[in-house]
Specification:
Largest sheet: 4 strands, mixed
Number of strands: 9
CATH topology of the largest domain: Carbamate kinase
Helix content: 40-55%
Radius of gyration: 17 Å
CATH architecture of the largest domain: 3-Layer(aba) Sandwich
Number of domains: 2
Strand order of the largest sheet: 4-8-9-7
CATH class of the largest domain: Alpha Beta
CATH superfamily of the largest domain: Acetylglutamate kinase-like
Strand content: 5-15%
């Protein structure tokens, strides 16, 4: 889940109504047997790239971005629990007294126990995005598919907000994504998924019901495999 999906615009850090809608959809699907591990971004709080552009060292900027994901993780836990979901929150940058460190064994136990696992802190290392964190955790936790929830309908040949009529792809191979330099995910994340044959679906998380549509194979978004 990109941090931008959570944003309420320039005036609000978070659109709580929007996030509650996502939580309700997750709760409904969870009740039907779906299992979720959620890696959260922090772009609504601060983007590491923006902090770096302002003159900070890359390492510092990346750590600031990772801490931003911890803020979002705390918020998601509360809103998910409002929807009567049991939530286990972990972070690769733990916050003592608030968020325990990520532990694969504990995360697997939480999933097996019926909890939604929320993962903050990125990879815990600079120079890697939450895309790479999502690929790593999906592989570690035995996920069947990596869903990238964004605010656009899928993968386009150009930014559809800047280039009206830009082509959207329904399906791409890992090789096509890498060769064309498409901004689906960081190349390190795509390479990880390619090596382990983990499919990726990029879709619009803001459109109500899209998580269900993706899981039911309705052809929403862009499939990369």
């Amino acid at each position: 889940m990109s941090g931008e999906v959570l944003s309420g615009g320039k005036e609000r850090l978070v659109d709580l109504r929007r996030v509650r809608g996502i939580a309700e959809e997750v709760a409904e699907l969870k009740g039907e047997g779906a299992i979720f591990a959620l890696v959260v971004g922090g772009g609504n709080v601060i983007r590491g790239t923006e902090a770096e552009a302002a003159g900070l060292k890359r390492e510092t900027a990346d750590y600031m971005g990772m801490l931003a994901t911890a803020i979002n993780g705390l918020m998601l836990r509360d809103l998910f629990e409002e929807c009567r979901l049991q939530v286990a929150l972990f972070s690769c940058l733990p916050v003592e007294g608030l968020i325990p460190p990520y532990d694969r064994h504990q995360a697997l136990k939480a999933l097996e126990g019926g909890e939604v696992v929320v993962l903050a802190g990125g990879t815990g290392n600079p120079f890697f995005s939450t895309d790479t964190a999502a690929a790593l955790r999906a592989l570690e936790l035995g996920c069947e598919v990596l869903l990238k929830g964004t605010k656009v309908e899928g993968v386009y040949e150009a930014d559809p907000q800047k280039v009206p009529g830009a082509k959207k792809w329904d399906h791409l191979s890992y090789e096509e994504v890498l060769e064309r330099g498409l901004h689906v995910m960081d190349s390190s994340a795509v390479l990880l998924c390619k090596e382990h044959r983990l499919p990726i679906v990029v879709f619009n998380l803001l459109r109500q019901g899209n998580i269900r549509r993706v899981l039911e194979g309705e052809g929403v978004g862009t499939l990369v495999n």
